Amino acid sequence: MSVSPELLEILRCPVCIQESDDAGLLDLTNEVWLVCQTCDRKYPIRDDIPVMLVEEGTRWQQTTVAELPETPPEPVV
Known about the structure:
Shape: globular
Number of domains: 1
CATH topology: N-terminal domain of TfIIb
Order of helices and strands: HEEEEH
Strand order of the largest sheet: 1-2-3-4
Structural class: alpha+beta
């Protein structure tokens, strides 16, 4: 199971949405990542739950989509 299309329509990058209501649209990638179209932050989906924490998105921001792990690792504590 993945993120429903209805949820994907309303989810936005928490950083970019602060700048503009039109910013922060997300693309579902590999069924386990949400990639911001504006800033390229990547938010993992763990146990079918999008992890929309800025720290998580920023952690993967410089990683290309091709280099993202197939299964998001657990967060660094």
